[in-house]
Amino acid sequence: MMRFKILLISILYLTLALAGCVEPYVPAVLDAPASFLVVDGFINGNGRTRIKLARTANLSATTPPPAEKGAKLFVVDNTGARYNLSEQTAGSYQSDSLTLPPGRQYQLRITTTGGAAYASALVPLKVTPPIDKLAWQLTGNQVNIKVSAHDDAQQARFYRWSFVETWEFTAAYRSYFEYFPKTDDLSFRVTPIYTCWRTEQPSAIKQTRTAQLSQNVLTDFPILTIPNRAERLKIRYSVLVSQVGQTAEEFAYYELLRKNTESVGTANDPLPTQLTGNVHRIDVAQEPVLGFVGAHTTQHQRLFIDRKELPFPNNWVFETPYQTCTFTEDAPGELYTNIGNVPLDRSPMGFSGSSRECVDCRLRGTNMKPSFW
User: Which domain holds residue 273?
Assistant: First the structure.
């Protein structure tokens, strides 16, 4: 999940906050054998609950943090109702699509393969109000995406958003031919590799509160910015925005996490602070556990931006990874000796070709059009 990387990065800041002020210092934690549980996710009141478990690793490790595999997870409410989660991939657990009764309190319980038992604190299910409006606005050299929402029921005073961005893009060159080295055969291309779609989930934490306002209303609150020359805007861009309402405690946790990971780096930035989540080990209360498991319903809305909607001139230059690409013209036998080359089209010299990185868009995305496109 998108917050998982941020949770692990926060450990780095917490352990190295005071290092390096005068001279380089290698903290003893680099060789510490302790491995603590990291819990990432929330209890979803109107969909699938997805939880990712891992273990912290030494800062000197060059491999990804180890996933916590084979654990038993379930959600329980204060009436005793239980909802199981099953492991989908290593360390990633998911429930069925659920509609949880409001007015109850919920917690996540975890039992690892080693028999250690963990639980999050009982928290109320926050009913998230719908997104009233999702819109974009070109301001200066960037496109701002803004959200509007309100809650007459006064359920949500603390909001957080997450994003899934998808955009259509093309490779530097279109290939009309395919070359098959085993048979030394050149034929018209069947597999499309020019147009693809790329999907990313930004890891930045974006949240705000209306607790200080007289009305529980958000109007055109900026949640995402895109540089006006970004490749994402070149053809067509889409973002799926998810909105959740939080408790004050969950908001405070993510605000601290945001400061620890995004606002550290200069002398004027705040020092990293100890993260205290709401997950604990039942039989060893003093064992550190990273993560805050909230419970809330989720609201979604998708926004599209087409290139033709943007007031850019026809010769507007977008920044892409293909700006240094070149192609060559040569006889087929010489051009495709290097398996990394891909044929483009016929040319006066025989055929033109370029590197696979400049021709095959699948190296950066998928050539399968998304269902929502």
Answer: 1-125+248-293
